[in-house]
UniProtKB/TrEMBL annotation:
Annotated Pfam families: Chitin_synth_1 (PF01644), Chitin_synth_1N (PF08407)
SUPFAM superfamilies: Nucleotide-diphospho-sugar transferases
Catalytic activity: [(1->4)-N-acetyl-beta-D-glucosaminyl](n) + UDP-N-acetyl-alpha-D-glucosamine = [(1->4)-N-acetyl-beta-D-glucosaminyl](n+1) + UDP + H(+)
GO cellular component labels: cell septum; plasma membrane
Localization of this protein: Cell membrane
Name assigned to this protein: Chitin synthase
Residues covered by the Chitin synthase N-terminal domain: 24-98
Lineage: Eukaryota, Fungi, Dikarya, Basidiomycota, Pucciniomycotina
Keywords: Cell membrane, Cell wall biogenesis/degradation, Glycosyltransferase, Membrane, Transferase, Transmembrane, Transmembrane helix
Top-level taxonomic group: Eukaryota
Membrane-topology descriptor: Multi-pass membrane protein
Enzyme Commission number(s) from the entry: 2.4.1.16
Length: 775
């Protein structure tokens, strides 16, 4: 389901094209020929601002509360510099920016935008009104820039293209004064506009209900503080990494902030979460990057009825309890999620950003050679390459950390097609970036990290390498675990289906069903998009879920049988009894139980957050096999799909082009129609009505797209993956046709299981130690 907020072509041309009537004015282009102009905001917006800010702004000769500033940027983000004649209001006003908060979007609707932007503005209010002397105007603040606290914060909204952008969001942005219709220009003197930039400082907000939130007289503490907002709408869709290039190379280069916070539209930062992220950098000078805890939006638990949502909730929770604390203890968090993370600006300058932006196809240094396709894969998970390059930055000692007190709520995919498509990018990017970090591990020794830090980073690299190998063989290990456990059941005298013969053949049938369903995933992944085969994918998730619970039942029977068969007849002392209990098969089973259920329970209780074990663990058990057999297979089989897709802009055709004329000898001017005040106010009322109208949803129907031709790299890697996993299955299951005795096969199986379970226990123990250390 997606919002039906797309307007008719006629409606878009009305709001995008030039005005039919109004007063004509002459706008001077800058000395470099740039179109930068200011437009008065509707009286309703201007009069809603607190009077003290209006008076202060007027006294200083500033127009940030009365006019929206528009710049038609016709240059690459790297060239958006003061030297080239481009500017932003905070720099024009001589303000020192401490915090740059960027919210990136693609086609999110106005509800998601309101959810994020309102939470961000509330956080800005919390920061400015905190007890910190830095923000409240104390002595320390004056030494580091002085001025009002809100003047040190800039919020950048970056929309990835006019075509995919939900036009309903423009109504919301116009309601708070940040955007105006009939202002954008498609071309300036024949040069195509790359980005449309609006700037306005506002106290107005729209909450998710949706309702307009305006300052109330006599309630200053609850009112929003003024927020400096910069809206950048790219004329063409160029992917999220390009949005970050606009953020860092256009905005951060000019504003020179101390900290940049990245948020995806749709993510809702919790109260004071942005303050917690900023404090991490302020109190720790060696922190180069940080992330908060992202948790699943469950709407009071109602969404957890969906097993896919519940499984993702468990996955997020355990990552926040086990993985992130461990990585933070080492000093290198492998993934600072682009949806909710922060970087110190001076830490990412130089090589980290240079390497990061190689994945931007619009950048002149982008990876374009076919032989570099493997390297390009890592940029699908843009947050990972930046993390490694930051920690491995030469002659520096930056670390990455996890801030548990900074929380962000996000919406997760609720259908199988959306989940598969999302994880395709995540898994491919994660795999490529993991290999990249291992191959370039030696770069850590060019840094200025302490000997102790380098030791722990080396340990972490070894841990990551072992985990990567374990992940590579996960399909084979899962298949072998399933087949061996359920086929062992009749040998122990346990017959779930009446007698040994029926149990044996039912188990055989389950093995065949498992194999056939797994084989089906390759057929689907190589030939179809998830949205084209939703029914088969739902069936596959269901089959693997049923088989997962059958495997759990069989494992419980085998475990109970193993422990009930212990006689302790030859163990007279307590020491002998413990040796019998923890050696052989019993020790392996105990290690497996402790490394999964035990660590989940203990760590969740340590962090006083155990509820996901009740609400989400049952669903996770059912979905976990599909995460390996469906999501991993689809991701690897679609390695040729290098990104989100980039296209031109049909919507930009509706925008007017402008040509300048000479006024005198050198001055270039443009004539445009300026909307009359009464027309502006009348149009604003209609805009507010549309912005506050709840959106309707319709089923999104997408036509299948043509299959990409260049699949050589994908075919080779998938073949290698299949061959190595198949070789492991053959080696363990003895499917090579050789005559192997029952004792030899049993010994081989026991050794294999001991290796797998003890490895799992070892990995879990490392995560447990890291989690406890962080706690």
């Amino acid at each position: 389901m997606r919002p039906d907020s797309a307007q008719s072509e006629a409606e878009w041309r009305r709001r995008a094209g030039p005005l039919a009537r109004g007063a004509t004015r002459k706008v001077k282009l800058t000395r470099q020929g740039h179109f930068i102009a200011e437009y008065p905001v509707p009286d309703a917006i201007k009069n809603s601002q607190e009077r003290r800010w209006l008076e202060m702004s007027k006294a200083a000769g500033r127009t940030e509360f009365t006019h929206v500033r528009y710049s038609a940027s016709t240059v690459d983000p790297n060239e958006f510099t003061p030297e080239n004649g481009w500017s932003l209001r905070p720099t024009l006003y001589g303000r020192q920016t401490e915090l740059l908060i960027a919210c990136t979007s693609y086609n999110e609707d106005k509800n998601l935008l309101a959810r994020t932007l309102h939470a961000v503005m509330s956080n800005v209010r919390d920061i400015v009104r905190s007890k910190s002397k830095f923000w409240s105007g104390g002595i320390r603040s004056k030494e580091e820039g002085g001025g009002q606290g809100w003047e040190k914060i800039v919020v950048a909204l970056i929309a990835d293209g006019l075509d995919p952008m939900d036009k309903g969001t423009l109504d919301l942005l116009a309601t708070i004064g940040v955007y105006q219709d009939n202002v954008m220009k498609r071309q300036v003197d024949g040069k195509e506009t790359v980005a449309h930039i609006f700037e306005y400082t506002t106290q107005l907000s729209v909450d998710p209900s949706p309702a307009l939130v305006v300052p109330q007289a006599g309630n200053e503490k609850a009112n929003m503080v003024p927020v400096q907002i910069v809206l950048l709408i790219k004329q063409k869709n160029a992917k999220k990494i390009n949005s970050h290039r606009h953020l860092f190379n256009s905005f951060a280069t000019q504003l020179n902030p101390e900290v940049c916070i990245l948020i995806d539209v749709g993510t809702k930062p919790g109260p004071k979460s942005l303050y917690e992220l900023w404090s991490c950098f302020y109190n720790s000078p060696h922190t180069g990057g940080a992330c908060g805890e992202i948790y699943v939006m469950s709407k009071g638990g109602r969404k957890l009825i969906n097993p896919l949502v519940a499984a993702q909730n468990f996955e997020y929770k355990m990552s926040n309890i086990l993985d992130k604390p461990l990585e933070s203890a080492f000093g290198y968090v492998a993934v600072l999620p682009g949806a909710f993370s922060a970087y110190r600006w001076k830490a990412v300058q130089g090589r980290p950003l240079q390497q990061y932006f190689l994945g931007d196809s619009t950048c002149k240094d982008a990876i374009v050679s076919p032989c570099a396709e493997a390297g390009a894969r890592m940029y699908l998970a843009e947050d990972r390459i930046l993390c490694f390059e930051l920690v491995a930055k030469a002659n520096a000692s930056w670390t990455l950390t996890y801030v548990k007190t900074a929380k962000g709520e996000t919406d997760v995919p609720e259908g199988v097609a959306e989940l598969i498509s999302q994880r395709r990018r995540w898994l491919n990017g994660s795999f490529a970036a993991s290999v990249y970090s291992l191959v370039h591990f030696w770069k850590l020794f060019r840094t200025k990290h302490s000997i102790l830090r380098l030791f722990f980073l080396t340990v972490q690299t070894a841990f990551n390498a072992f985990s990567l190998v374990f992940t590579w063989f996960s399909p084979a290990n899962l298949y072998l675990s399933f087949t061996i456990i359920i086929m062992l059941l009749p040998d122990t005298g346990t017959f779930i289906f009446y007698n040994e013969i029926i149990t044996h053949w039912v188990n055989k049938a389950f093995v065949w069903i498992y194999g056939a369903t797994l084989a089906l995933q390759f057929v689907l992944a190589l030939g179809n998009r998830p949205k084209g085969e939703v029914g088969l994918y739902v069936m596959s998730f269901t089959i693997f879920g049923i088989l997962a619970y059958y495997l759990l039942v069989c494992a419980v029977f085998l475990t109970v049988k193993a422990f009930t068969n212990i006689s302790f007849a030859d163990a007279p002392t307590l020491k002998d009894k413990l040796i019998d209990l923890f050696t052989g098969t019993n020790g392996v089973l105990l290690a497996a139980l402790a490394s999964t259920y035990g660590i989940y329970l203990v760590c969740s209780l340590l962090y006083f957050d155990p509820w996901h074990l009740i609400t989400s663990f049952p669903a996770y058990i059912a979905v976990a096999p599909s995460m390996i057999n469906i999501l991993n297979v689809y991701a690897f089989c679609n390695l040729h799909d290098g990104g989100w897709g980039t296209k031109g802009s049909d919507k930009a055709d509706a925008l007017p082009s402008i040509s300048s004329t000479k006024d005198g000898e050198k001055t270039q001017i443009v004539e445009e129609v300026l909307q009359k005040s009464e027309d502006l106010d009348a149009a604003f009322k209609e805009t507010v009505r549309k912005a506050l109208t709840p959106i309707k949803t319709v089923e999104a129907k997408e036509e299948p797209s043509a299959e990409d031709e260049n699949k050589t790299f994908r075919t080779r890697l998938v073949s290698l993956w299949l061959l190595t996993n198949g070789a492991l299955v053959v080696a363990i299951a003895d499917a090579n046709g050789l005559n192997t005795t029952s004792a030899e096969q049993s010994k081989k199986t026991s050794v294999y299981f001991a290796i797998i379970l003890w490895s799992t226990a070892g990995l879990s123990l490392v995560r447990f130690v890291g989690s406890v250390y962080f706690w």
